[in-house]
Amino acid sequence: MKLPIVDHPTAAKPFVTNEDRSHWHDDALWFVRVKRDRQASSVPEWEYLRERASAIKTHTIANLGDYLEQFERNATARGATVHWAADAEEHNAIVLKILRQHGTERIVKSKSMLTEECGLNPYLEDNGIEVVDTDLGERIVQLREETPSHIVLPAIHIKKEEVGQTFHTHLGTDAGASDPQYLTEAARNHLRNKFLSGEVGITGVNFGIAETGGFVVCTNEGNADLGVSLPKVHIACMGIEKMIPSLADLSVFTRLLARSATGQPVTTYTSHFHGPKDDNSELHIVLVDNGRTRLRGNDTFRPAMHCIRCGACMNTCPVYRRSGGHSYRATVPGPIGSVLSPSRDAKSYKSLPYACSLCGSCSDVCPVKIPLHHQLLAWRGELVGNGLLPLSKRVAMKTASFLFQRPGLYRTAGSMGRTALRVLPHFVTHNRFNTWTKARELPKPPRESFRQWYIANRGNPQRRDSANGNATAHANTRSNGDAS
Amino acid sequence: MTVALFVPCYIDQFFPQVAVATLELLESLGLDVVFPDGQTCCGQPMANTGCNSDTAPVAQRFVDLFAGYDAVICPSGSCTAMVRHHYAEYFADDDPAFTSVRDRTFELCEYIHDMHGGRIPDVCFPHRVSVHQSCHGLRELGLGSQSERMTQRPDKVAAVLKQVQGIELMPLTRVDECCGFGGTFAVNEADVSAAMGRDRIADHSGSGSEVIVSADMSCLMHLQGILRRQQNRLQVMHVSEVLVGRELETTPLAAAQRS
Ligand code: SF4
């Protein structure tokens, strides 16, 4: 689905400046992060597991074609039908074709960020098919006609009172009710009817296993199992990066996934699917590229394909926690989204690599060791290289570089700047044109720089005449550096 | 042992007292300290914006200026991390001047802890202190254990500070969350940056601390700016100032003047 593109700071503003909401969101996600820390620390080999997971992914991505073919062979041998989709349109068309073949009017769908990425819901609805999301969070978001704000916790941005209001409108729950127990029960009853009347079940895929041709779906509500147990047709939509070589490898990932995602030791339901349920049933697996091969071809950003979509980088990201997921205007928000989105469309998402203080927390929390903050930094270099940095910032950096190469000029500019800050009235230096001073005071400028102090108290600094590494000390001789 | 002092641009211009404290501290450790003339900036602002072609000549100047010293010591984890981990992009792997500068550039506390047996002069600082771990110091230089990783590392800043007589280190709720400075991030994403800064300050204030101490003056510059806007009496000090025995301003007026 094409989302409106807005500059991140602008899109973040209403969320982050609503202090109550921003703090509430921050606390909710920090709580998850703390649970994750507790779980991770309970596994002595945690760092080893991350290392293994990263190595398995590197290997799989390097040999992706072979593993995909092996997967297709084995899945087909088990009776599944494997489809290949080059992009979102093709994916949607394949799904619709299968639905049409069965005269389907209503599907039940468990959570899948891939179908979100492909815009499957609106596409099917436009084609007259009713889509019911069965993940509770997704259902809430769906009823509100919003998009998920987080890849694991799609409705984390919505308060329980607001859920109560939504359910009151759509499901007829009591007005003003906000008790999570009551609301969950109401949703469960509502969804139960939907499950019973679903004609086709659609799920995402967490891991496809080349060795067996089977795949795994992890949920906490069991909705994936429910959604596919009654209908005769199950369509599994899978990004090609979800591949892993063997069942033994799976154990590494299942230990990391739930702990990283929600701080649980394991997801409540880890469902394995190997072929159709029975002779009367069909299993379709749609393998989707949609830009992944292009990402794979990029040496710098290829590790982003390791992502198992646990969401830990979002939970830990101080920018995400305070600005909310919608500020990214992308299917996948947060640090990994800021790496993935510009690889699809650098121009539209050019502000995302800058929506990051480069604190590095995401890289260290990531269970598959994607160097997220270094990739965001690399993205900035790409954007500048492609002329996508605004001119004002470009000029500022060019000027800074010019000054820093000319110590004499740098000192003059520094001294003028400090004097200006000292003598100008507060309202001149602190106004709306100076972004720094919107929420902060400028430092009080000292009369002398350190270098001036040094000359007054220690004599002249050491001058280095040759640029080839041979220092020549000229203690107490006059020196102005390379006066410019 | 001749060591070179690298004073980052913003410390040179805005916080000379931090460079003075660093110099005095290193001298009191018996080191022969030189301050190479012509130094300006490590190039981090440009590099973090992605302006690599603007960074290259600045990095080259830095390496030319600092090659050949036994060590280059810098009172900033962030600038040290720039040299150690991000200069590789601008030099050949086997450029001897580059590798020597890369391997011999140290953050102040790191130098004292790793290269100088962790000893500091006898000083007293009878105050409640909360330590702000800078992200680059923590995660790029490994100055302490970070909460995301399940590996233990010595906390070099705290280890050095703990030797100060009378000091009381106060615990934080979120031990190592980012303060929101992030270089040009503070201007680019002003609202988020300020929100992060206010939250950091609330954690430090809530710990009962009188002063936030950090090895990175850039984080402190941002936090101090917010503290002053809030008219908050919590103070900030660079770790070098504590280690040479500078006193905490105690009267509100003095505190206001100081900050
Ligand atoms: S990038 Fe890493 S932490 Fe973020 S969602 Fe993917 S696997 Fe999880």
TrEMBL record, chain B:
GO cellular component: cytosol
Lineage, top ranks: Bacteria, Pseudomonadati, Planctomycetota, Planctomycetia, Planctomycetales
Gene field: lutA
Domain Cysteine-rich: 3-83, 129-224
Organism: Crateriforma conspicua
Entry protein name: Lactate utilization protein A
Molecular function GO labels: oxidoreductase activity
Regions that span the bilayer: none
